[in-house]
Amino acid sequence: MGQARGQLLASLAALYLILVVPHVAGGNIADYIDVMWGNAKIVTDSSGQQAVAMILDRSSSSAFRSKITYRFCRIDVEIKLVPGNSAGTVTTFYMISEGQWQTHDEIDLEFLGNSSGNPYTLHTNMYAKGKGAREKQYRLWFDPTQDYHTYTIIWNRDWTLILVDNKLLRQIKNKQDHGVPYPYNQPMRLYATIWNADDWATQGGRVKTDWSQAPFIAYFRNYRAIDCSYQSSPLCGEGSTNPSGWLNQELDENRKQQLKEVDSQNKIYDYCKDTKRYKNGFPAECMAES
């Protein structure tokens, strides 16, 4: 009887771990994503690592998505963007809910291509309950076409954070208590795409895609996702020494300093400072984020 009871308790403990430990994706990217359309290919890059080659030509764009959805998570992926004349192209890395569009949630990173010798623009945005228009844009402090760099979305109950090479680029507070919508209840799925947007992407659409440069290829690898739906795991716990511990964490002084540096040196557009767009006062979250 005692042995049977011990086996039962062991089985229940194992089941508990399965239920509470968050899903962690890591390793070969093909194990965790589904190619949706276009000429996206699983390749081995020059370092011997598996990558997804996202290809854009006149006939087709490319896209992939995560096999599962997440509700509160940290997602990291390494990206090497289209080199040379990438004007008119947009490479994206974003999360989006799968319910009705009118109430959808979304966290966007869009890399806007440019003509040779000019830098990419990283365009960021958020939608919550169907309300978006929270755009901020940045110039990166490196050439994102020469090597892979790590781009991160951290989404928890209190914050949404966007990091580049583990440097904080943008933070969005949950200010639902101020009447500001925030992605909270709807799970989201990770998507990546490359597509032609030469009607707006480069210099407001003045520079068009040069199809003689096609195919345009961006590479994605080292996809890692930690689903923090169950906050009891140490993978999602507090502590700045834990790179994944962002479920409940406030920004420490180091992150605040990073944000100030990026705002002063790399940010080129902020909807919260666009007086032409908001002649009668800024949205509520612009005051709430301070």
From N to C, what is the helix and strand string?
A: HEEEEEEEEEEEEEEEHEH
Q: Tell me the β content.
A: 35-45%
Radius of gyration: 20 Å
Shape: globular
Kindly name the structural category.
mainly beta
The overall strand count is 16
Distance N to C terminus: 62 Å
Helix content: 10-25%
**What count of helical segments does DSSP give?**
3
Provide the low-confidence segments as ranges. 1-22
Largest sheet: 8 strands, antiparallel
Q: Summarize model confidence as the mean pLDDT.
A: 84
Please give the structural blueprint.
Layout: H1 2-20, E1 24-25, E2 33-38, E3 41-44, E4 50-56, E5 62-70, E6 73-80, E7 89-97, E8 106-112, E9 121-127, E10 136-139, E11 149-155, E12 159-164, E13 167-173, E14 188-196, E15 216-227, H2 253-265, E16 267-270, H3 284-288
Antiparallel strand pairs: 1-15, 2-5, 3-4, 4-15, 5-14, 6-11, 6-15, 7-8, 7-14, 8-9, 9-10, 10-16, 11-12, 12-13
Question: Could you walk me through the main structural features you see in this protein, from its secondary elements to its overall organization?
Answer:
- This protein is mainly beta.
- It is built from three helices and 16 strands.
- It has helices at about 1-20, 255-265, 285-290, and strands at about 25, 35-40, 40-45, 50-55, 60-70, 75-80, 90-95, 105-110, 120-125, 135-140, 150-155, 160-165, 165-175, 190-195, 215-225, 265-270.
- Strands 1, 3, 4, 6, 11, 12, 13 and 15 form an eight-stranded antiparallel β-sheet that branches. An eight-stranded antiparallel β-sheet has the order 2-5-14-7-8-9-10-16.
- A hairpin with a 3-residue loop joins strand 11 and strand 12.
- It is globular and about 50 Å long.
- The chain starts with a helix and ends with a helix.
- Residues about 1-20 have low confidence and may be disordered.
